[in-house]
Structure formats: structure tokens, C-alpha cells
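Hi Y.,

Following your request, here is the sequence exactly as I used it, all 213 residues.
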Amino acid sequence: MKKNMPANLNALLRYKTIDKCLKNQFKKCTIEYLIEKCSEALSEFKGKNTSVSERTIREDLKILKSDALGFNAPIVFENNEYRYSTKKYSIFDTKFKELKLLSEIKEILVDEFENIKSDKKYALLYKIAKITKETLPKKCYHKDLDNFNFFEKKVFIPCAVHIEKETIPLPRYDEYPKTYKVVYYWSWFKTKRKVVDLENKEYFSWEYILDTL
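Below is the corresponding structure, written out as C-alpha cells. Let me know if you'd prefer a different format.
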């Protein structure tokens, strides 16, 4: 299914905040509580008092529950409280393979670049640009971006930048041979080999995006 684009950085921050609330099984996540926490998060990010409407939070919950951004979050509403029906669930663990969505997220991050405080933004945008094969504006490059210590000590994101090397046929038990691709990728500065199903290849995880905000 074609994925929609997050409205803006504020929406991503709200998704992250709602996820944090719903993961806490000991909190009573009423709509009022979610409004309060999202307002606090946006106020802290913007440096000024910011309020979020009930309608906005309800729309956010619908998006998180749907496949619009690939989350399909198991959100349930009982006794006037929202929670995840699956323990340890988090939207951080959701992966997607739509390059168009990744490109659109990149545009949001570039537009709000100066407002994002985390230094992880440099490495994140660098990785996204590598995957989407797009260029970044000069402001998004760090002078130490290619320095080993910069990634290792400050902002390294262990996401795979796939380097495709060869295509091989692998037989499956009761199916016709299916084409897989052997890729080599970075993981904690070691080159690893992985066989990827071409039909189900996942490009990126929401964790790397949300953790930067």
C-alpha cells in the first residue's frame, strides 16, 4: 500500500510522544493526558508555549493505528484510556521500504534542520541521501562527516547502507526457485554479508528517524 507523508516535524514529534506514553503500561493514557504530554513536548522543542488540540491527537491516533505510515499500531481504547494491546510494542521498531516516503521525510528534516538540536541529524540525513541517491544542501553536511570518530562516538546510526554485489537463486522447500540478492552492509563498522528477499526488502527503520528528534 502506498504510504502517506507525515504532515510536518510537529506530527513526527507527536507520534514519538504518543508512542512513549502508550508504551508505559502503568500510565493512564486518557485523551487529556496525551494532549498534555504532546503539548509539553512541542513546547520544549519550540522553546515557547504550544498547545495541541484534541482533534489533532485523535487524528494522530488514527494514523498510528492505520497503515498510512506503515505503523499499524495495536492501539485499543478501554475505560476511557488508550494503550497498546501488545506488550513491548513500539513504532520505533516499524520498518518501511518506500523510497518516496523516505525522500519526503528527508525534505521535512532538511526544512527543520536548524531547529533539530541532536547532532544525529547529520548522519541520519547522510544515510538517507545515500539510499535515495539525492543531494543535500550544504548546511546539512558536517565537517567531520566522513571521520570515523564522528560516527563512532557521536552520531553513529547502525542502519544498513546496502551495497548490492550479486544476485543468486536460492531454492525454497516447496516453491520454485526464487531470486535473492546478496548484499554487503555496514553494521558497527564491520562489513557484513546478508541475503535479502527482493520482494520484501526493508530499507529503513522509523527508529533512526524518531530517535533523532
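The chain has three domains: 9-93, 96-154, 163-201.

Thanks again,
Q.
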